[in-house]
Structures are given as C-alpha cells and as structure tokens.
TrEMBL record:
Keywords: Amino-acid biosynthesis, Aromatic amino acid biosynthesis, Cobalt, Cytoplasm, Lyase, Membrane, Metal-binding, NAD, Nucleotide-binding, Transmembrane, Transmembrane helix, Zinc. It comes from Roseburia lenta. NCBIfam families: aroB. Pathway: Metabolic intermediate biosynthesis; chorismate biosynthesis; chorismate from D-erythrose 4-phosphate and phosphoenolpyruvate: step 2/7. Its EC number is 4.2.3.4. It is found in: Cytoplasm. The chain crosses the membrane at residues 102-123. This is 3-dehydroquinate synthase. Belongs to the sugar phosphate cyclases superfamily. Dehydroquinate synthase family.
Length: 365
C-alpha cells in the first residue's frame, strides 16, 4: 500500500484515507481497518463511473461480502437531489438493508455527497465508505464528512456532517479522467495551497509539467499533500464554526456562477473563477501584491482553468452570491487571502467592493 492519512474527529481517530494505485488493495484495506464483511454492501455510483469501474469493483466486493448490490443513477449535478436519495432509500428497503449493512460511494463528488447523505439518514445512519474516482473528490469532497444534496436553487442546502468508515483512493483512476474534470480538481488543489500552505503552492508550480503529464508518482504526491491540508483543516474545525470556512475560498462567487451556468461549468472551474475575485479583492485590500495577484491568475490558467466569464451580469452574480446559504444576516462571509498560504474571513465588504471584484471576471467575448 502506498500512503495513508489518519483523520481524527473530535480529537479521536475516526477514519483513514488510503492511497493506492488500483482497486485491488480494497479488501486488505477493509481488513486493516477492521471493517466487518459479514454484511450486505450496496455500491452506489453514476452512469459514467459504472461504465468504467462498476464490474471491477463488484467482482472485488464479491470476494468479501455475502451480498453485493449496486444502485446506479444518472451522472451529473441534476441528480444531486432528494428524488435520487428517495430512490436509493427505496432500493435499500426492497433489498432489506439494515443498520449493520454498508454503502460504498464509487465516483466523484455528487456520488460521494449523495451516498454519504443517504448513509447518514437511512435507518438513522449506516456505515459508508468513500471510493472517490475524480481528482476533486479525492482531495476535497470525500474528506471531512460534508454530505448532502442540492435543494430548490441552493447548492448543498440539505445535508449532514457524517463521517465515512474509510476513504479508499485509487490514484490510477485519475488517468481515465477527461481533461476538464482533471482541471476542475486542480481548482480545489490550488485553493488548498493558497489558503493554507505556501510551500505546497510553490510545489504545484514547480511540478506543473509532471502533473499535467499525469505522472502517477507525482499525482500521488499531490493528492497526498492536498489530503493532508484538508485533514488538518477539518480536524481543527469539523463543523465549520471557524477556519473550515477558509475552504470556501472562491466558492461564494463560484457557487453563484455554477448555478447561473446551470451546472454546465464544472465546480472546480467555478471555484477558479471565484478565486480570481478573491485574489483581486485581497490585492485591493493590500494583503497581497499586484505581482502575487497576477501570479495566482497565471497559476490558475496554467492548469487549464478559467478566470473569467462572458455573458453574465455583475449585479445578477452579486444577487445570486447573496442567496448563498453562508450569509450571516445581510453580510457575505467572504474569504480573502491575508497572504499566499493564509486565508481569513472578511465580512466587511460593501456591495460596491464586491461588484468591483465581480467586474474583473467579466469579458465581452
Ligand atoms: O469541506 C468543506 O468544508 C468545504 O467547504 C470544501 C469545499 O471545497 C466543497 O466544495 C464543499 O462541498 C462546499 O461546501 P458548502 O458547505 O460551501 O456547500
């Protein structure tokens, strides 16, 4: 086995992130973590991931579990809702899944968030394992126990903090990712460096060519580094009472653009665009220099991510930003960079300043 990261919850060991280069080590990982196998398992995945990995993972599970079921839903953010969760509940009820049984989330962020939420609520909570297959889910959404679905016009509006029993990462699955999805994950990875670790940010710059060539050892190093940063943040503040909000850098405006694009832009692309605003406003507040601001833009673009949008109205973006669930009264909980590698919460931005931060994103094309 390659590397492992222990994640604690409320200062007690809770689950491990296990990095590997195939799905083959999954049974050994279950054994190592003392996860019982004399129970039913339901693999939850989407139509895209099912084509790639469902057979392989099902065969592996059949060597360990007496009953292996699978539930496949349509790929995409449009499935991340209560209707899909209800279908999953029904599927589990019909197959007599009880409280000692297990769910396995095989896929990206939508699969992990939705399966985790179903696990948190079905029979008041059954075990689940995260098996993230996208870059974004490996470094971000599978870690920290945020589970949930979108509701009405709000992203991740209904959910629960609910910890997985294990996160099993197969780095090799990154090699089959479409370029846009790989870039989307890089958005969160760049964010990790910017908010928490300047040396990791520099490392990403220094290894850009190898990362983009998908050198598997370098990818492992990068995923491991990001997992460590995320682990550190969620251990310090598991329920987002304080510094966990730093992980929202780029998300406040990013979520608004994601929704306005009708989810045609990937999450990480929208975070990249949102980070542009965050970096710009950090520069305007005098926290970072113009050179650093420009360096951040170049870094984001260097990893094939957008820093602007066309055909959007600044006022509309602001209005959508203000409908984010993270508003405190009429104030936006905005995340800025105090310097490269250190974020801060700032609730003092006026609408005028925010509009200026949005304006820099808009192009005429
Ligand atoms: O784990 C967290 O906390 C994060 O905020 C990580 C984000 O990158 C992630 O997109 C998260 O799902 C956003 O959560 P939300 O509470 O802002 O919806």
């Amino acid at each position: 086995m390659a590397r492992q990261v222990q994640v604690n919850y409320q200062e007690k060991p809770c689950y491990k992130i296990i990095l590997n280069h195939s799905f083959d080590g999954f049974l050994d990982a279950l054994e190592q973590e003392g996860i019982a196998r004399d129970r039913k398992i339901c693999i939850v995945t989407d139509t895209n991931v099912a084509k790639l990995y469902l057979n392989e993972v099902t065969e592996i599970c059949k060597n360990a579990f007496p009953v292996v079921e699978y539930f496949v839903f349509d790929a995409g953010e449009s499935s991340k809702n209560m209707a899909t969760v209800e279908k999953l509940y029904e599927y589990l009820i019909k197959r007599h899944f009880d409280r000692k049984d297990l769910l396995l989330a095989l896929g990206g962020g939508v699969v992990g968030d939705l399966t985790g939420f179903a696990a948190a609520t079905y029979l008041r909570g059954i075990d689940f394992i995260q098996m993230p297959t996208t870059l974004l889910s490996q470094v971000d959404s599978s870690i920290g126990g945020k589970t949930g679905v979108d509701f009405l016009q709000y992203k991740n509006m209904v959910g629960a903090f609910y910890m997985p029993r294990m996160v099993y990462i197969n780095i090799h699955s990154l090699l089959s990712l479409p370029n846009l999805q790989f870039a989307s994950g890089m958005g969160e990875i760049i964010k990790h460096g910017l908010i928490r670790d300047a040396s990791y940010y520099q490392w990403l710059k220094d290894h850009q060519a190898a990362i983009q060539a998908h050198d598997e050892d370098i990818l492992e190093e990068m995923v491991y580094g990001s997992c460590l940063i995320k682990k550190n943040v969620v251990e310090t503040d598991p329920k987002e009472q304080g510094i966990r909000a730093y992980l929202n850098f780029g998300h406040t405006i990013g979520h608004a653009i994601e929704k306005m694009s009708d989810f045609s832009l990937y999450h990480g692309q929208c975070v990249a665009i949102g980070m542009h605003s965050g970096a710009y406003l950090s520069f305007k507040r005098g926290h970072i220099t113009k050179d650093q601001y420009e360096d951040i833009l170049a870094m984001i673009q260097g990893f094939d991510l957008p820093v602007s949008v066309s055909d959007y109205d600044a006022g509309e973006i602001l209005a959508n930003t203000k409908s984010d669930k993270k508003m405190v009264g009429d104030k936006i909980k905005f995340i800025v960079l105090e310097k490269i590698g250190q974020a801060a919460i700032d609730m003092t931005f006026s609408d005028q300043e925010l509009l200026e931060g949005i304006q820099v994103l808009l192009t005429d094309e």
